[in-house]
Amino acid sequence: MTAPIALSCGEPAGIGPEIAAKAWFELRARCPFFYIGDVAHLPADTPTQQISDPAQANEICAHALPVLQLSFPATNTAGQPDPSNAPSVIDAIETGVSLVQSGAASALCTAPIHKKALIDGAGFAYPGHTEFLAALAGRKRVVMMLASEQLRVVPATIHIPLSRVPSELTPDLLRETIAITAEGLRRQFGVPNPRIAIAGLNPHAGEGGKMGHEELDWIAPLISDLPGDTCTVTGPHPADTMFHAAARARYDAAIAMYHDQALIPIKTLDFDRGVNVTLGLPFIRTSPDHGTALDIAGQGIANPTSLIEALKLAQRMAQSA
Q: Where does substrate bind (predicted)?
């Protein structure tokens, strides 16, 4: 039997506990997972059972949400992160990584964190989950993919100002992004010969140099020089014609040049079901594609769809690995 999925609690004052409970009510034994966090943070009407071994989750998940209990020093108040809880939030992530690396869990799914609370309470030195997981895994370079049934898209540059994109988007960066994406499609998505479409940086992919020269100077030559024996890479394509249905049918994943070029199409196509996947790690990691939503935490109205899709995708990826 496949090992269950580890779900780290994220910021307990956010919607993480609520959507974890809702995800269990929806999935139960169809997608066994266990919650790493404090059972006291979960909604009071959630059937729970504490576990000491992740393997117990496969059986327990049919009738209760399995919880690998962690202690938190401060009382949790919905919508109000307490920095003194930050070390326990980090401990939940580190515990999940350790369990998935040992094989006790088949994948790690992470509920959203609150970066300011982690910085204030634990001196958290990373821009976010992705960079922290890369450090824990000893990987210098990982790739963020946003995935749904309609589209898989990777931003080559992520959380930087648009003014810095042309200088930080280097041939080495793009080449590594393509390689990691292709390997992730093969190893974790079961696509033996991936087809990857590369977006242009400039409008109309530069339009022959009239709207920018990066495509002519190095992006197109880099794509032409790639070996074609293990994957097919095409482009650079005008980004404004890459994401309609007929275009999406021609590739398994698209690589965009910057954050909004990647996230606008997937959030437009499938806002609630997008999943954040980290490629390049030695284990499977997924996450819902949203934040802590402190403004609605504790009100019982949070939408669990993205977390449900993240857990289901992690299960499929584990079965393909």
A: 129-130, 267, 276, 285
Q: Cα–Cα distance between 238 and 235 in angstroms, integer?
A: 8
Which residues are known binding-site members for a divalent metal cation?
A: 159, 204, 259
Q: Which helix (H) or strand (E) holds 189?
A: helix 171-189
Binding residue ranges:
129-130, 159, 204, 259, 267, 276, 285
What span, in angstroms and rounded, lies between the C-alpha atoms of 109 and 69? Answer: 17
Overall pTM > 0.85: yes
Domain boundaries, the chain: 1-142+280-321, 150-269
Four-way CATH pick for 150-269: 3.40.1160.10, 3.40.50.2000, 3.40.718.10, 2.60.120.10? 3.40.718.10
Pair 46, 19: CB distance under 8 Å:
no
- DSSP letter for 241, please: G
Please state the residue numbers annotated as binding site for substrate. Answer: 129-130, 267, 276, 285
Q: What's the half-sphere exposure (Cβ side, CA atoms, 13 Å) at 106?
A: 24
Distance CA 40, CA 85 (A): 14
Helical (H) or strand (E) element with 128: none
CATH architecture of 1-142+280-321: 3-Layer(aba) Sandwich (3.40)
| Per-residue pLDDT tens over the stretch 129-163 | 888 999 999 999 999 999 999 999 999 998 889 99
